[in-house]
Structures are given as C-alpha cells and as structure tokens.
Specification:
mainly alpha, AhpD-like, 57% helix
C-alpha cells in the first residue's frame, strides 16, 4: 500500500481521521447541506435512549452483516465492545442472521467483527484501561448490569443452556 493510504479501501489515512465515514468527505465536497443533514440525522439515531447502547450497536452491526459491509461490521463490533459487549454476544448476534440470510454473510463477517472487537478491547489512550472498562467506570448503561430498566428487552435473560434443534423434527 502506498505511503499515506489506509488499508481500508486505499483511501487517504486522513479521511478516516476527519470524517466518521469514508463517504462523508466526498458527499460534503459535492453536496455539503445533504452531508450535514445526514450527519445530524445519524446523530439523533445515535442518541436514542432505547434500546441500551450495547444492543443498539449489536443491531447496527447485524444490519451491516446483512449488507455485507466489512467496514461497518468492524466499526459497530468495536463500538459494541467499547460499551461492554463480549465476543460471545457479537458472535451470537452475527449467527442470528444465518436463518434468513444464509451462512456466507455470517462467516464472511467474522474477520471484520473480530478485528473490531479487538480494537474495542484495546487499552484507551488514558491510563491504559480498556475502553469497555472506562465505559463501566463512567456508569455506562450497557456496561452496568441491571441498568436496562425501561429499555427494549428489559428483564429478558439468556437461557441457562444453549437451545438445541432436533433435525428430525
């Protein structure tokens, strides 16, 4: 890869530092009002209080799995990990796409999801604590057990044992 280019699509590295999404820079150059309105709209979606932030990022990650968008998968897996999602939660969310969308998108998503998860687990710049640990210390809803009161799925828990499917049924 030539110097100054990022491994994500060969875009200039500064593209990823200045803009949240690689396409934002180009959209802003062509139609700045549209890019600003879209950014404001996405900001409002990001500020939804329900579902909790971890579930929000897992849902958005699953949407990017369905779209077969590795950059989106990586981004939302990272953000989910930053707010306390475990690898098992990320993996389970991806595998839930299999019945409707097939095995291929789910399997193809795994490397990007693992990369994003690992980034979300990296020590943050401040003090060496992981980003997920910092979120928990700040009282993040997603990182604090029992804080999902009033959110979608509140009170639901995973079964004690994994569900088994009998192929003869």
């Amino acid at each position: 890869m030539p110097e100054g280019l990022d491994e994500r699509g060969g875009q200039p590295a500064e593209t990823y530092l200045e803009w949240p999404y690689p396409f934002d820079r180009h959209l802003h150059e062509l139609v700045p009002n549209l890019q600003e309105a879209q950014s404001a709209w996405l900001s409002q979606i990001d500020s939804l209080r329900s579902p909790d932030r971890k579930t929000h990022e897992l849902i958005r990650m699953v949407c990017t799995v369905i779209l077969r968008n590795p950059e989106g998968i990586e981004r939302h897996a990272m953000l989910a990990a930053e707010v306390g999602a475990s690898w098992e939660e990320i993996l389970g969310s991806i595998l839930l796409t299999e019945p409707a969308f097939g095995l291929l998108p789910a399997v193809a998503a795994l490397p990007a999801a693992r990369k994003g998860f690992n980034k979300g687990q990296e020590p943050a710049a401040q003090g060496g604590e992981t980003r997920a640990g910092q979120a928990a210390a700040l009282g993040s809803e997603a990182a604090s057990p029992g804080s999902d009161e009033g959110t979608v799925g509140a009170g639901l828990t995973a079964p004690e044992t994994p569900m088994r499917v009998d192929p003869t049924e």
